[in-house]
Automatic annotation (TrEMBL), chain A:
Residues 18-93 form the DEP domain. GO terms for cellular component: cytosol; neuron projection; plasma membrane. It is a peripheral membrane protein. It comes from Eleginops maclovinus. Residues 315-430 form the RGS domain. SMART domains: DEP, G_gamma, GGL, RGS. Residues 206-240, 434-453 are annotated as: Disordered. This is Regulator of G-protein signaling 6. Keywords: Cell membrane, Cytoplasm, Membrane, Signal transduction inhibitor. One of its GO terms (molecular function) is GTPase activator activity. Gene3D superfamilies: 1.10.1240.60, Regulator of G-protein Signalling 4, domain 2, Transducin (heterotrimeric G protein), gamma chain, Winged helix-like DNA-binding domain superfamily/Winged helix DNA-binding domain. InterPro entries: DEP_dom, G-protein_gamma-like_dom, GGL_sf, RGS, RGS6/7/9/11, RGS6/7/9/11_DHEX_sf, RGS_DHEX, RGS_sf. Residues 218-233 have a biased composition (Polar residues). Residues 436-452 have a biased composition (Basic and acidic residues).
From TrEMBL, chain B:
Keywords: Coiled coil, Repeat, Transducer, WD repeat. GO terms for biological process: signal transduction. It comes from Eleginops maclovinus (Patagonian blennie). The keyword Cell wall biogenesis/degradation does not apply. WD repeats lie at residues 51-92, 139-179, 180-221, 222-263, 273-307, 308-340. SUPFAM superfamilies: WD40 repeat-like. Residues 1-31 form a coiled coil. Belongs to the WD repeat G protein beta family. This is Guanine nucleotide-binding protein G(I)/G(S)/G(T) subunit beta-3-like. Gene3D superfamilies: YVTN repeat-like/Quinoprotein amine dehydrogenase (2.130.10.10). The keyword Translocase does not apply. InterPro entries: G-protein_beta_1-5, WD40/YVTN_repeat-like_dom_sf, WD40_G-protein_beta-like, WD40_PAC1, WD40_repeat_CS, WD40_repeat_dom_sf, WD40_rpt.
Length: 471, 340
């Protein structure tokens, strides 16, 4: 409906010649005059000028939209699009505007087609698809064809009383109306509605009014999508009271300034722009062009490239998103003998995805491993979280460790993550330094290795370090 | 009813106070702040693949997490899982009800879900033992059509419905875990936050709500749209929400500032937004419209930087793959197109 109002606003303006609308005139055609027309090019120009559209394709697209809904139509074609040339167009009568919620029945359409065959005018001859439609309707309405025929005759009599020029215009407008509601095969039916919106439309009971004043015989069945279910909810006193307490909470909310959040959004996009294939060219190549899937092989590999490693430095969340990042961080923590935090975090993530029957036992296992007295991988929780968690475990669920997990995450973020980024493990990967067999991570220098290094990069050295690397 | 009147007045008063308070924090606009940011330039995406096979309007599509598989739902009563690179149909699942409105792919890749006028969310197991895809669960409790569904994992799914509520389900037991009520109109769409702790819903009451999944509470409400919100999604960092509406505009709301940052609109865009997706960095917003086109916006500068015109009927759904490499559009013309 909103769209119709917008289009109607444009269409009204465009016809208002005094206010800068297009010149609607009578064109002399070779045997007669064509009243009340305007060229497609004029419409396009008007749209570009008055709606400040710079791109002509966009103006044509918009014009075609207006045409598709039947507000303007080509006088010699059933297909409702706008062409940027001398093709002549006419404006639709407000009587036929889609905003009137027309849903014309097939009886009306039958009357219309029948009426057309009664009038001996070349311009009213039926197109092939219309002739087929008429034949189909004759079969469908065989029993009441006499009635339809009479209605058509009545319409012809009414039409004959009108002025010739007026009739030309009205006939074309009527035809355009049917072009919208019974489109040429292959054309989009713009009256089709999203089924989710159907029952809330302005005409909820779909009062069927006939185009030709034919009384509804009550035989039309509502389609399944038009069955109106419950009416829209009216807020109750409780609803309003709830809303008030909610609003009070919002009023007290501590908010950030727009400048600050704007900065935050801008720095995020800046950081990730090089990883956004729609904005930056991708290495090695676009896997969607050609059959080269090396981009995906690279992403999936456990041997990450520099660009991927760089992302781990953006935030702990990014590092943990990448399986290789997780591995490296874990490796680093192991070297510091502080991997229990990350292992706890990973275990809780896993718990959240477990099937219900396993949740309880798994939750207990996690407690035993990380939190119980004398736990083998004891983590450091503040007393508050500890209390909360042990309470939660009386009725274990997937989210029993939520508080604890958040606490541990914050700990890792502020403590070990920062050190990880400064570590040799990370820095080496970041600068894509080639790994020399003897140049392993600082923290893992065992006495044996020190011995072999002092001996020199001899045969023995290489063999021994080779062994250690594989462990 | 004097009391109701008074309550309403109190409500309006609070709303005004909040608006005033938020205004004092509006020390700049996103557009102004971004005026120094380098322009993105014209974005021209080309159709790389067309997925043919549906016989009627496509209402929904969703990418899997692996970046090549996606699922689509059409009113021809089929749910199709596509290998979008080869354009082969991996699965073609016949549905009991052809009035399907939404579909979702589980992050694990094991399950897909769909629902519509049957008011139910049906879960299908793609990795069944004998290779056949069968209904695993039918989640029934909504009293209105199912407009959207999104998996949290293989064990939990969130649905939104025309009955104005959203529900968190436990898939194994097929029961409702939490009901999120508060919207005054049909819920049309939902989006889950990157950390899976929150979700947002857009509804026909013209508002978007942020819900805490654990506490089943509405944390924030965003208004400003003049018509139904049909599409909703999170900005990639999870701190902002993007909405698309029948009023032909998209809006960006920030969670921490609790207000609207920008409206993406143009007088020449008149048709409602049906669907939206953000590019990987969040710099671009792709919005599908009823007028058969997709408009591409620079989210920071609020400038239109591109148009995808390739469908012959309205664009009903859009999605950007998880690696950000490709965008998929689905339309009432029965085709899906992959662009980049």
């Amino acid at each position: 409906m909103i769209v119709y109002r917008k289009i109607e606003d444009i269409v009204t303006r465009i016809q208002d010649e005094k206010a800068g609308g297009v010149a609607i005139r009578t064109v002399k055609s070779f045997l007669s005059k064509i009243p009340s027309v305007v060229s497609g090019a004029d419409i396009v120009q008007w749209l570009m000028k008055n709606l400040t559209i710079e791109d002509i394709a966009e103006a044509i697209h918009l014009g075609s939209l207006i045409a598709a809904h039947g507000y303007i139509f080509p006088i010699s074609d059933h297909v409702l699009t706008l062409k940027d040339d001398g093709t002549l167009y006419r404006f639709q009568s407000p009587y036929f505007w889609p905003s009137n919620c027309w849903e014309p029945e097939n009886t009306d359409y039958a009357i219309y087609l029948c009426k057309r065959t009664m009038q001996n005018k070349a311009r009213l001859e039926l197109a092939d698809y219309e002739a087929e439609n008429l034949a189909r309707l004759q079969r469908a309405f065989a029993r009441k064809w006499e009635f339809i025929f009479m209605q058509a005759e009545a319409q012809v009599r009414i039409d004959r009383k009108k002025d010739k020029a007026e009739r030309k215009i009205l006939d074309s407008q009527e035809r355009a109306f049917w072009d919208v509601h019974r489109p040429v095969p292959g054309c989009v039916n713009t009256t089709e509605m999203d089924i989710r919106k159907c029952r809330r439309e302005k005409n909820p009971h779909r009062v069927k009014k006939s185009v030709y004043g034919v009384p509804d015989d009550g035989q039309s069945q509502p389609s399944p999508v038009h069955i109106s279910s419950q009416p829209s909810r009216k807020p109750t006193k409780e609803d309003v009271q709830k809303e008030i307490s909610f609003l009070n909470v919002q009023l007290d909310r501590h908010c950030m300034k727009v400048s600050k959040v704007a900065d935050s959004l801008m720095s995020y996009t800046e950081q990730f722009m090089e990883y956004d294939p729609f904005v930056s060219p991708t290495e090695p190549s676009n896997p969607w062009i050609g059959d080269d899937s090396s981009y995906w092989d690279l992403e999936a590999s456990r041997d990450p490239n520099q660009q991927r490693v760089k992302k781990w430095g953006f935030s702990l969340e990014e590092a943990l998103k990448d399986p290789a990042g997780r591995d490296q961080f874990l490796k680093f923590l192991e070297s510091e003998f502080s991997s229990e935090n990350l292992r706890f975090w990973l275990a809780v993530q896993d718990l959240k995805r477990r099937p219900l029957q396993e949740v309880s036992s798994r939750a207990q296992e996690i407690w035993q491993e990380f939190l119980a007295e004398g736990a083998p991988s004891s983590i450091n929780l503040d007393s508050h979280s500890y209390e909360r968690t042990s309470q939660n475990l009386k009725d274990p669920g997937r989210y029993s460790y939520e508080d604890a997990q958040e606490h541990i995450f914050k700990l890792m973020k502020s403590d070990s993550y920062a050190r990880f980024l400064r570590s040799n493990i990370y820095q080496d990967l970041l600068s894509a330094r080639k790994k020399q067999p003897a140049d392993t991570e600082q923290g893992r220098r065992t006495s044996l290795e020190k011995f072999t290094r002092s001996v020199g990069k001899s045969l023995t050295g290489k063999r021994l370090t080779g062994l250690m690397q594989s462990s | 009813m004097g009391e109701m009147e008074e309550l309403r007045k109190e409500m309006e008063n609070l709303k005004d106070q909040i608006t005033a308070a938020r205004k004092t924090f509006q020390d700049t606009t996103l557009q102004e702040a971004a005026s120094g940011v380098t322009v993105v330039g014209r974005v021209q995406l080309k159709t790389r693949k067309t997925l043919r096979g549906h016989l009627a309007k496509i209402y929904a599509m969703h990418w899997g997490t692996d970046s090549t598989l996606c699922v689509s739902a059409s009113q021809d009563g089929k749910l199709i899982v596509w290998d979008s690179i080869t354009t082969n149909k991996v699965n073609a699942i016949p549905l009991k009800s052809s009035w399907v409105m939404t579909c979702a792919y589980a992050p694990s890749g094991n399950l897909v879900a769909c629902g519509g006028l049957d008011n139910m969310c049906s879960i299908y197991n793609l990795k069944g033992k004998d290779g056949n895809v069968k209904v695993m669960r039918e989640l029934a409790a909504h009293t209105g059509y199912l407009s959207c569904c999104r998996f949290l994992s293989d064990t939990e799914i969130i649905t939104s419905s025309g009955d104005c509520t959203c529900v968190l389900w436990d898939i194994e037991t097929g029961t409702e875990k939490m009901v999120f009520a508060g919207h005054q109109g049909d819920c049309m769409s939902l989006g889950v936050s990157p950390d899976f702790k929150f979700f947002i819903s857009g509804a026909c009451d013209f508002t978007a709500k942020l819900w805490d999944i654990r506490e089943a509470q509405c944390r924030q409400t965003f208004s400003g749209h003049e018509s139904d919100i049909n599409a909703i999604g999170f900005f990639p960092n999870g701190n902002a929400v993007i909405t698309g509406s029948d009023d032909a505009t998209c809006k960006l709301y920030d969670l921490r500032a609790d207000q609207e940052l920008i409206t993406y609109q143009d007088s020449s865009i008149m048709c409602g937004v049906t669907s939206l997706a953000a590019s990987k960095s969040g710099r671009l917003l792709l919005a599908g419209h009823d007028d058969f086109n997709v408009n591409i916006w620079d989210m920071l500068k609020s400038e239109r930087v591109g148009v995808l015109a390739g469908h012959d009927n309205r664009v009903s759904c859009i999605g950007v793959s998880s690696d950000g490499m490709a965008c998929c559009t689905g339309s009432w013309d029965s085709f899906l197109k992959i662009w980049n």
